[in-house]
Design goal:
Elements: E1 2-3, E2 24-26, E3 39-41, H1 48-51, H2 53-59, H3 66-72, H4 82-91, E4 94-102, E5 113-116, E6 123-129, E7 132-137, E8 142-146, E9 152-160, H5 169-173, H6 175-180, H7 184-200, H8 203-216, H9 223-270, H10 273-278, H11 281-289, H12 292-299, H13 302-308, H14 312-323, H15 328-371, H16 373-379, H17 382-435, H18 440-462, H19 464-482, E10 503-510, E11 520-527, E12 532-537, H20 543-550, E13 558-563, E14 566-567, H21 573-579, E15 580-583, E16 592-593, H22 594-598, H23 607-616, H24 620-624, E17 627-628, E18 635-636, E19 641-642, H25 652-665, E20 670-674, H26 682-695, E21 700-704, H27 708-711, E22 716-721, E23 724-729, H28 731-738
Parallel strand pairs: 12-21, 12-22, 15-20, 20-21
Antiparallel strand pairs: 1-8, 2-3, 4-9, 5-6, 5-9, 6-7, 7-8, 10-11, 10-13, 13-14, 16-19, 17-18, 22-23
Helix pairs in contact: 7-9, 8-9, 8-18, 9-12, 11-15, 12-19, 13-18, 14-18, 15-17, 15-18, 15-19, 17-18, 23-25
């Protein structure tokens, strides 16, 4: 085994560091003809699998950059195993397949791949030429050549997933169908198992017939023992097959739950902000949760019944062989029950829809109440809210009652069909027994077979309302997946053009609703790069809307927004996101360490970068003085955990400084500050003024503010009123115009 260096150098530190930490790229990891992906450097302990991530992406020709890799890394993972590896690759747009192979059995067209063997650390097999294999060896951290031998291992092959923003609408509508196709092999397994189960189901009626005709009528009682042994074997085989089928159904349900859950979450976070904000949170949560009915479809009695329905022909065939025209009974009843189901389906869909709508309204009120509990108490409106909830709860309960009544009616009708089928079978069979056309045992067997043939349809009728929930869940899922995302899920190559930060608005208008007053109406101005721009205006003037348009969260209904002469619509969303640092008016921090919360804006930031950003925000000393826990659980500084609302030792002023630090950490050419003075203490305000002075000339800053200290720092002021730009110019000029009006 010889050591090689495709570019004359080696990968010095090709290792992913774990525990949710980031990495940064360092030079020296470039192959001939490849891109300079760099080496992953961070904190935590590397593994052989984490070391293979960047080399594999390099040889696959991945077009993204280190930010996208960092965003795909798992958080709170102690052991970066092969599952974590495949999940990261899936997040980057690659599907994977697993195969047990011998090294010398691989062909050149199968490479590159990840190769795992019991004796060696993970390797990336790059290419196969003659009798040599070029590979990246994680143990040595460099590219090597090795001779192919009979070593056994597991290979993981990665292909770019077929996701594209250019997918047509028909594909979007059939998203769930496309997902279901992935389980086609399991469907064939279920069909085969169900076929065997239905064959074994013949054992019971045939056993009864043999007992009646041979043992009792023929006087051969001793044969019952042998028949019982055979029937017992059939029952045991039936139990085993049913258990096996239940396992397959459970696997499909669990996989669907996992895959759909990830895809729903991925889709939601990539949807435009306007799409998310227009729908009520309660409605979104309920409709996403509604997909659980699809999983229950596979783990409940409905799916097995539907799979067994085609095999009713087996029982009808046996009935025809034993009783001739009696076979018409299950056929007629099947047609009757199917017609009943088709007639009841629209009504079931309507009743279930109304029940769902009532539940959504109740859940919306619950979420609204929990979010505004303080305001409700301030207004003394507890009784009003209880009354509203009582009304919605009563409506939901009433509609659930109607749905339960309808389900009960269908259950009764299905029971009547089964009982009627039994009566007709006995009536026809008795005449045949009397005429000698069939035996008593055959009649009893036919009766059992008729009920068995109709059982799946009975289950389907009883579950009709649940089937409408399944259909509703699939439709909601397809509707969500059919919505256009804000950006493609597959990483795109960057344009290579560095954004300087010149901002031009030309007749920009936007309405949040079609019949609403414009939030911005004909806004026009031109700001050179490196300028500090203050935005003034009363509440509802359009200040925050302007920042959201610049951040790409919304697109204007009319006019154009240009950055460095490029229309904002033509800039890749990922590129725009990294070029604009947006500091919202209300800070929001998530459960995790301070370092993890800060790195949400820049996943590749080092600890020194974090300290620099905190120093800019005037928060470094306060963070370094923080302690949490004791003993082995003691955390200090950047490792202190915040709650889901930033609660704990952090004061409101410190939280706002952390909010600003997260914006600085991005080192973006455009910085948007929405009312940064809200909640900011004196120390933080002084730090903000120093930071603005440092950013001047290097970064274009838009700051929504009314504080005189901030306005003095501005190079330009934009005065907004009722969505229109009243004035743009130097602070002294604009402030003189606003005197007495703000």
């Amino acid at each position: 085994m010889n050591e090689i260096s495709p570019n004359g150098g080696a990968i010095d530190e090709a290792a992913l560091k774990l525990s949710g930490s980031p990495f940064q790229l360092s030079p020296g990891n470039k192959r001939k003809g490849g891109s300079d992906m760099g080496a992953l450097v961070g904190v935590g302990e590397p593994t052989d699998l984490s070391a293979c991530l960047l080399p594999l992406l390099e040889v696959l020709g991945w077009r993204g950059d280190q930010h996208q890799v960092a965003e795909s890394l798992p958080h709170f993972v102690e052991n970066f195993d092969v599952t974590s590896f495949r999940n990261v690759m899936a997040s980057l747009g690659y599907e994977s397949q697993k195969a047990d192979v011998k090294l010398n059995a691989l062909s050149p067209d199968q490479l590159p791949c990840l190769f795992l063997s019991d004796k060696l650390d993970a390797q990336v097999l790059v290419s196969l030429n003659a009798d040599r294999v070029e590979a990246f060896d994680s143990a040595q951290g460099r590219y090597i050549e090795l001779s192919p031998d009979s070593r056994k291992g597991t290979a993981y092959f990665f292909d770019l997933a077929g996701r594209s923003e250019e997918a047509d609408d028909e594909d979007a509508v059939d998203w769930f169908k496309g997902l279901s196709d992935r389980f086609r092999s399991h469907v064939f397994e279920i069909l085969a198992i169900t076929f065997l189960i239905n064959l074994l189901a013949l054992a019971a009626p045939l056993f009864v017939m043999a007992v009646y005709d041979w043992a009792i009528a023929g006087g051969r009682v001793s044969i019952i023992v042998y028949l019982a042994v055979g029937a017992a074997i059939a029952v045991l085989c039936d139990l085993s097959l049913r258990s096996l089928r239940a396992g397959v159904f459970s696997f499909i349900g669990a996989r669907l739950d996992h895959i759909v859950g990830i895809e729903i979450f991925r889709k939601i976070v990539h949807l435009p902000a306007a799409f998310i904000e227009r729908a009520a949170v309660g409605a979104q949560v309920f409709r996403i949760k509604n997909f659980e009915t699809v999983r229950k479809f596979f783990t409940g009695p409905i799916a097995p019944a539907l799979f067994e329905l085609p095999f009713a022909l087996i029982f009808i065939g046996v009935i025809a062989a034993l009783g001739g025209s009696i076979a018409l009974v299950p056929i007629v009843m099947l047609v009757l029950a199917a017609g009943l189901g088709m007639a009841a389906l629209p009504l079931a869909d309507k009743i279930a829809g109304k029940a769902e709508e009532a539940e959504i309204q109740k859940q919306e009120l619950t979420i609204e109440t929990l979010g505004g509990m303080r305001a409700i108490k301030y207004c003394g409106a507890e009784a009003t809210w209880v009354r509203r909830y009582r009304q919605l709860s009563a409506r939901a309960a009433l509609r659930s009652f109607y749905m339960a009544q309808f389900s009960s009616l269908l259950e009764t009708l299905s029971h009547v069909v089964i009982v009627a089928a039994g009566f007709v079978t006995v009536a026809l069979g008795v005449s045949k027994v009397q005429s000698g056309d069939m035996t008593m045992g055959a009649l009893v067997a036919c009766l059992i077979l008729v009920w068995r043939a109709l059982q799946p349809l009975q289950t389907g009728l009883e579950s009709l309302t649940r089937l409408t929930h399944v259909d509703s869940g699939v439709n909601h899922l397809n509707s969500l997946m059919g919505a256009r995302p804000k950006e493609g899920l597959v990483p795109l190559a960057q344009s290579g053009k560095k954004i300087e930060g010149r901002i031009t608005f030309t007749n920009v208008s936007i309405r949040y609703e079609a019949d609403a007053t414009p939030a911005l109406d004909g806004a026009t101005f031109d700001i050179k790069s490196g300028k500090i721009v203050a935005i003034l205006g009363s509440n509802g003037a359009g200040k925050s809307t302007m920042l959201k348009l610049l951040a790409g969260m919304y697109h204007p209904d009319g006019g154009s927004i240009q950055i460095d002469g490029r229309d904002i619509r033509d800039i890749n969303a990922a590129e725009l996101r990294r070029s604009v640092a947006y500091v919202p008016q209300t800070p929001r921090f998530f459960y995790g360490t301070i370092a993890q919360n800060l790195r949400l804006s820049n996943p590749t930031a080092t600890e020194e970068d974090l300290r620099w950003a905190l120093r800019q925000a005037g928060a470094l000393e306060d963070i370094e003085a923080m302690e949490q826990g004791s003993g082995d659980w003691k955390r200090t500084g950047l490792e202190v955990r915040l709650g889901d609302r930033g609660a704990g030792q952090a004061s409101p002023g410190l939280i706002q400084r952390l909010n600003l630090a997260r914006g600085y950490l991005k080192r973006a050419p455009i910085v948007l500050l929405d009312e940064p003075g809200n909640g900011l203490d004196l120390k933080g305000d002084k730090a903000l003024i120093r930071a603005l002075a440092n950013l001047r000339g290097e970064t274009t800053v838009f700051i929504v503010t009314h504080r005189p200290s901030h306005l003095k720092m501005a190079d330009r002021i934009i005065w907004l009123e009722y969505g229109s730009v009243r004035s743009v110019g130097r602070p002294k000029v604009v402030m003189q115009k606003t005197r007495g009006m703000l």
